[in-house]
Amino acid sequence: MQPVALQSLSELERASLQELALFQLQQRLPMGHLSLDRDGPKGIKSIRQKLESFSKDRKDCSAHTFGVPLPQVIANDRACRQLQEAMGRSRRLCLEVEATVTRFRAQRHKRLGMGTSCIRAPDGGCPEEPFSPALVDKRSWSQRRGAMSVDSITDLSDNASELLEALQLSHPNELDPRRSQGKKKLLSLNPITWQVPRIVDRCCTHLEMHGLQTVGIFRVGSSKKRVQQLREEFDRGLDVFLDEHQNVHDVAALLKEFFRDLPDSLIPRELYGAFLSTASLEGQAQLDTLQLLLFLLPPCHSDTLLRLLRFLAKVAQHAESSWDPQGRQIPGNKMTVSNLATVFGPNILQKEKPGEKDAGALNFEDSAAIILVLQRLIEHHHSLFMVSPEMQWDVLRRLFQTDPDVIEYLLRRKFPDVPSPEREDPGEELALSALPGWTHSLERGSVSLELYSNVSFLNLDVGI
Q: Rho-GAP domain location, by residue (predicted)?
């Protein structure tokens, strides 16, 4: 088994990984640094609810993007995208109807021009073909109604990501807290779709294309009037496109303001003290602790943070001057990792909510710790968002205790090339013997699974 990206894990695996990371952090960090463990043993079971509780509070507000909780921003973007797609389908349908009516009129005019509106059939009647337009042919109608086999889904390569996202949309009843109260949410066995706000992705993409060589990006001032206009367009839910004519410093300021105005900071305030405590650690211990803390983040916060860190790392790569193949000097943007961490640190790690008393007041120790932590995140984001084989096995070991019926499916997904053996009695076999290196035995009261590899030996002994 190889290290895998955090985003490739299923929703169920990520939830189990959160619980596992919290347990290990409680062993690593001093008491009080992790505010989530105040409830004692119940804190482990409620980690998902605590970190994602703010995503359930949907406020009725006119703003679409700024000053709105991150999960709601993503939901708003999704709703706008679905509306645009529905309007596009409606326009295409209208064009099809118009073209069909035009063909019908042309055929009717041609027949009337020949002196008859009906050609007699041999039996004296009119032919069965009606003089009414066929609005949609049978093939397109069957496709529009969803008459599609499951196997044909794999052929939709262009819309694969959109299809995956559509299959993972929350049921409308889940948005109503009164209906979902008291019901246990079933977690998916498929990976969670990429959850990054449209404004973040478009600002980062624009700056990657047009701003990497801009000196003083994120430091040079912008036009408040133009930035305010962009804010209003995003807040109205418009499909804003940032082209080469858009000022780089305006887009940079817009990106900073988005993270600054989040009511729930990108790194939840419940983890503020825990992240700052890693500044006192060194070497691999610091990176391991940061990785565990990143595993605690809700998916939308984790995905958005990774998108931002990738972008900042790319900006830092162009900090120094370079030369093109013709020998001409390309000026650097002067924004090193330290400078970027100084600019974005207070917007990513916030102790107080925006507008609260002392929200912008930080002592020197906290400011230095925030800069150091964000530096490490930028420098090591490639490895910090990867899940090691050891951690993957720990997740499987934990799922044996909580959801033993899904283990075989998860293993099949991790080893897709292994054929599935036929079983005479599914109730007595786990169908894991075909996996390379796996042996299993059933004993009364326990299931023992062993994996032999060239680097490790893992024994999964779980009581049942």
A: 187-385
Q: How far is CA 193 from the centre of its chain?
A: 5
Q: Which residue type does 311 have?
A: F
Closest CA to 396 of 443, 351, 451: 451
- Could you tell me the end-to-end alpha-carbon distance of the chain, in angstroms, rounded to an integer? 26
User: DSSP character for 191?
Assistant: B
For 457, the 3-state DSSP assignment is strand
Percent of the chain with pLDDT over 90: 38
Q: What is the mean pLDDT of the chain?
A: 75
Q: Is pLDDT of 180 > 70? A: no
Determine contact, residues 230/240, Cβ cutoff 8 Å.
Answer: yes
Of residues 20 and 432, which shows the higher confidence score?
A: 20
Task: Mark 87-104 as b/e (b = at least 16 C-beta within 10 Å).
Answer: eeeeeeeeeeeeebeeee
d(CA 332, CA 213): 6
Cα–Cα distance for residue pair 400/16, rounded to 1 Å: 11
Cβ-in-10-Å burial (0-12, 13-18, 19+) of 261 comes to middle
Q: What is the pLDDT of residue 357?
A: 52
Mean pLDDT for 391-419 is: 84
Task: Enter the pTM of the model.
Answer: 0.71
Cα(110)–Cα(104) distance, rounded to whole angstroms? 10
> What whole-number distance in Å separates Cα of residue 176 and Cα of residue 183?
12
- Taking a C-beta distance cutoff of 8 angstroms, is the pair 156, 166 a contact? no
**Is 280 in contact with 342 (CB distance < 8 Å)?**
no
pLDDT, position 188: 84
> Residues 6 or more apart from 268 whose CB is under 8 A from it?
51, 54, 297, 298, 301
Contacts of 135-139 spanning 24+ positions with Cβ under 8 A: 135/96, 135/97, 135/100, 136/93, 136/96, 136/100
Question: Is 433 within 8 Å of 375 (Cβ atoms)?
Answer: no
Structure tokens at 274: 């825990």
- Our CA angle for 222, 241, 302, nearest 5°, is 80
Retrieve residue 47's tokens: 């980690």
Determine the pLDDT at residue 138: 45
- What torsion do the CA atoms of 49, 52, 54, 60 make, to the nearest 10 degrees? -110
Does 298 have pLDDT greater than 80? yes
Q: How far apart are CA 143 and CA 145, in angstroms?
A: 5
- Count of C-beta atoms within a 10 Å radius of residue 112: 10
- Rounded (10°) angle between helices 283-295 and 11-28: 140
Mean pLDDT of 152-164: 41
Tokens of 359: 């929200």
